[in-house]
Amino acid sequence: MNIMKTILTATAGMVMMGALGGSVLAAPPSGSSTHAGTAVPAPAAAAVRNVVLVHGGFVDGSGWEKVYTNLKKDGYRVSIVQNPTTSLADDVAATKRVLDRQDGPAILVGHSYGGVVITEAGNHPKVAGLVYVAAFAPDKGESVSSLIKSPPPGAPVPPILPPQDGFLLLDKSKFAASFAADLDPEVAAFRADSQVPWGVGALDGAVQQPAWRNKRSFYLVATDDKMIPPPAQRAMSKRAGATVVEVEGSHAIYESKPAAVSALIEQASRSAR
Questions:
Q1: Which of 3, 72, 142, 253 is within CB 3.0–4.6 Å of 222 for a Cys-Cys bond?
Q2: Domain that holds residue 179
Q3: pTM of the full predicted structure?
Q4: Are strands 167-168 and 127-133 parallel, antiparallel or unpaired?
């Protein structure tokens, strides 16, 4: 099935941020696994001990704090990229600068739009594996904009405000329901009030060399996601040949279910080649 047709059919009109659809897969791809998100202890020694975390649109890297803490407790060296979210090129460059500083191979992790960033930046020679967390996983020539274009009319629309000076924000009053429904209300309110403007230019940035074609990939599907529909996540992860886990949670699953996210990252570190 054509991946773009699959994505646009299931989108049901979601536009802009995370507004991507895909066909519902009856089961994860061969060689993948699913679980309820229970964390597993890291082994005494893993093939890769460096982890680089990349945030998506509308937020900064602080949402990774609980995942960071979990991984540090298990002996990993963790770095968090602060993307300018002005353009894909700028965000890839910021990620590569962090990768340059790693003292060995690293697992590169991206949430949401961060998946686009790691798809391009993941070609860095220090990247040993990729982990997508409720994230876009584009193929060559694809961008967020191309993946979400031409939705059917009359379908629900995420609460994205009209762009100002080339940047986007979510409606604060609707942020929790669409992005962070399973976060503590006070935390969700803070995220809404501290949004990072997301550059329209970043949505238009097209991937030139998808790293998932030559790096082992893992994907966490957030089954209650209202920004990137779960069927789309399944379609993209299948196309990438990723090892898949499905966890109940919102688009902010990296913050609401840090144990599940940490467990998948640690699995990737043990599986790196």
A1: 253
A2: 3-19+46-141+157-271
A3: 0.85
A4: unpaired
